[in-house]
Structures are given as C-alpha cells and as structure tokens.
Target: DeoR family transcriptional regulator
Amino acid sequence: MIRLQQRRKEEPALGPSERRRKIIEIISLRRYDTMSNLACEFGVSWHTIFRDIQVLAGEYPLIVTRGNGGGISLPKGYYVSHRYLSPKQERAIRRNLDAVDMEDRATFESILTEFVCKKHLDNRNT
Model:
C-alpha cells in the first residue's frame, strides 16, 4: 500500500471525473475492492472515495457492502466494457411494446434480452 501511495503522489492529481472513470475500471477488472484501498491507491481521503462511489452508483449497478469485510463490487456478469440499457430506457421500451407489430415486438424483446443488465431484472422481480 505504501508503494502505491508514494507512486500516486508523484503523479499529477486526477480530477474527479477521471478518478471516477478509473475507479469503475478498477472495480470492473478486480470485481471487488475496498474504499480504504482505493483511497490509498488514488492518494485521496476515504470520504472522497465514498462520494465518488455515491456518484458512480447512480450510473452503474454497484454493490456496496458495509461494515467489516465490506467493499464495492459489480454484479456477476456485469462488465463496464459491455453496453447495457439504463432502467429508464428499459421502461420506455417495455411501455411501448404493445404499440408495435409482432415482428418489431420480437426484435424489441431480443434487444431487452441482450442489453438489460441482470441486476435490473433481479430488482424488478423482487
């Protein structure tokens, strides 16, 4: 950890947007990390990472586990490099399915199957 912190201090500080982009890339690659580790790695406070995670949680299906042994992860099968429909986009398509002919309906349903994040489906069915 000390080496990471020293290395980061030598590099120019990242702006919030760039730091958040790198955080989500790291979580997607590692699948799990802690806020303390990310704070150390980026040379910022735990509170800064906490705020970054709050912002990122509005854009990505982050799973935040609190307490001892807690951390940040992404749902199994979700990768940032893949494209998914947002919940709002999914709702708009589902609302309009009845208005399209059967051929287009099958196409829209295949789009939903391919591009809806599994976590969104799980949340909708509970």
About this structure: Helices lie at 2-10, 16-30, 35-42, 46-57, 87-96, 102-115, 118-124. The longest helix spans residues 16-30. The beta strands are 32-33, 63-65, 71-73. The domain at 2-73 is CATH 1.10.10.10 (Arc Repressor Mutant, subunit A).
